[in-house]
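new request in #modeling-help
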Amino acid sequence: MLRLDEVRVSFGGTTALDGVSLELGVGERLAVLGPSGSGKSTLLRAIAGLEPLAGGRIYWNGSDVTQLPVHRRNFGLMFQDYALFPHRDVAGNVAFGLETHDVPAARRKVRVDEVLALVGLRGYGARRIDQLSGGEQQRVALARALAPTPRLLMLDEPLGALDRGLRTRLLDELAGLFAQLGLPIIYVTHDQEEALAVGERVAVLNRGRLEAVLPARELWLAPPNEFVARFLGLSNVLALTAASGRLATPWGEVDLGAAPADSTKVLIRPEALTLSPDGPLSGAVTAVTFRGESTTILVRPTDAADGPLLEAHLKTAASTPPVVGQTVTLAVDRSGVVFLS
Amino acid sequence: MVSRRALTAVALAALPLAFIGLFFIWPVASILVRGFAPNGTLDLSVPLQVLTRPETLSVAWFTFWQAVASTLLTLALGLPGAYVIARFDFPGRRLFNALALVPFVLPTVVVGAAFLALIGPKGALGLRLDHTIWAILAAHVFYNCAVVVRLVGGVWAQLDPRTEEAARVLGASRWRAFREITWPLIRPAVLSAASIVFLFTFTSFGVILILGGYGYSTIELAVYRAAAVLLDLPAAATLALLQMTFLGVLLVVYARLQGHAAVGQRLTAARVAARPPRGRAEWTFVGSTMALLALVLGLPMAALVERALAGSTGYGLDNFTALFGESARGALFVPPIDAIRNSLTFAAAATAICLPLGLLAAALIAYRQSKLATAFDALLMLPLGTSAVIVGFGFLVSLGQLPIDLRTSPLLIPIAHALVALPFVVRATVPLLRSIDRRLKEAAAVLGASPARTWRMVDLPMVGRALLVGGSFAFAVSLGEFGATLFIVRPDAPTMPIAIFRLLSQPGALAFGQAMAMATVLMAVTAIAALAFDRLRTTSVGST
């Protein structure tokens, strides 16, 4: 449905999007993940038509919409911090997109009620915007974007301004709502948990370039490169020194099996490390954090006081965790070893 | 039982109230009594006769329509300027924003002199437009443009641009998004700015006296001519009342409009609302708007300096050195340089009177949020809405009746100036006092400081800035005050604006040159004061 072809956006001298190509299927939910300043918001603004392109084209169902003005695209965009209209009440905000599409007043009212009910704000129509809580404002913004039945819905950090508890709850609600709507969705976030929960596929953006576009599960299990791995919170990335598969690490030498010819780095997933008396890796424990199902420990090489830290997630049921200062030996499960390009 | 807090409030209010009562309410009341009950009984025959004169009607009509035209023209130029300043970041933006303020703080006499320098008989353009309505309108636009650019631009800059973008994404065209989203949000600021411009142009005096000639007269000018030239006090009183009635109606209309426009808006602090222009169309728009504004605001000031430097034998400082000699044709009875000394002395005295009163009043308004404090605030603003000419006229009428005849006192002019400056000083210092963190004071109180001691230890150091801001305001207003001074000034002790005005009314190159030189000096002094004030204000508590 939506296709981006080498899209470039620049602000003065700096390049915000540097040749982004992307396709979105019918009813597909795509999460765009990236650190702040990576160009996520710019990507949405470019698709919406709010940023002129310095190069590349945007197609919708095969037709070129690059030059189509913003207000004719019928793409929904929910802004970060919502950008609600402060001089209109809740119903007035939601009705705005219907007014611009010349929906008659009677049908407008029905649709406003319908959308407000959908986001769980039945009866909120006459409230003023400044009387709403953050979570309610977020729902109004969503209702406003949905009301004119856009052919594509884009959300820019929709949960970014909310506190943690509310976030977790709304994330589940949103995921359910999106599945129910069947709309194509682009969901921008810097939070990997949100991206994996919402996106069928996840695109990782870094400095205006796409690092990866993969199904969520695949991305999590086998991140293609070091940036993606580290951004997903996987920090055990080591340089490959020899192709043989035997790897000399600060914690000892370990056999990881044969590496593909083009890989230069290797990731050891933290859950692949287990306590084992005759494991190949050893070091001193510097931190122990109990997380419920597992315990996170950080291990530094025995002979290096300020060396790198190896992160291991030990299953709570499997063993008694070590204490800080204790020397441990660890084994590596090969299924948790990912070669990075 | 009367609480101690209430007693403190009354004590604080007593001095400013006495000052306003003695030097404003009473003089204005005296004018009304003179006009309507000259012999102790109400006699409306003279006022009615004055009101039905064809001249009165034509003066009232001219006053009204020129104010409407001036306001519309100022908006037409100022609104694009406000938009550009609020939304675009370009080289020279800050400098422009600062310089746009200068015309607004210029004394009206300097504005008049600057336009004579541009389009007067000895003007730099060689094109005569003085004694035409165009000169008056151009001067009003020049003078008031900053009000629109600053006031509307300030609010516009705080509007989140994404609000308008959200409307665009929802299917609104550019025009529709402006009409339905942006306009309702900036409308209160536009109304405020338009009301202020209307108020200033409606009561325009110096500009019309200098640029209009006898063909044009506002009510304000008619009051002056009736009282000071024709010595027809009942007519002057009637016209003054007419003016006050007009302004009263304007205030009521304004309050109602603002009441309707208040929409509980919450302005998001603009993170990066202003961005560099992109593409040829935006650069052209930004460039042409700024060029036009720079031309309208810069040309008269440049012409003034150019004329001041132009002597009979080429450019030089002849006109400035001539200020130390005799005044041309004995226009001032004293060397022009004396006017500069007089102005500085009067301004220092006016500041000394105004500052304590203004700070007392501001402290009361800033710390007590009650109906009484609001009423007190409104009372202090009255001199601003009444016009300086009426203040001067009122002094003339009333102050002879005091046990000590203040009319011959050297304090008379400083008192008048302090009265005119008081609303400005209060308005400028209230936000500064409000910005003082309440918790600091509570902390001091918890640590055992008495209220007086808390004020001295916590507030006073922070009030230092307010003193500086209020003081520079009072000083600048006094330096430029013209309308009231014209009534009460002694012929042999002119202030700078008076000297400029008298020199401008004399024929001859020497008088013109001296007027230009002195106007340039006055422009430089007020501009420096204003820019310093602007810096102090904006670096303190964000934009207030």
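bot summary: Chain A has a mean pLDDT of 90.
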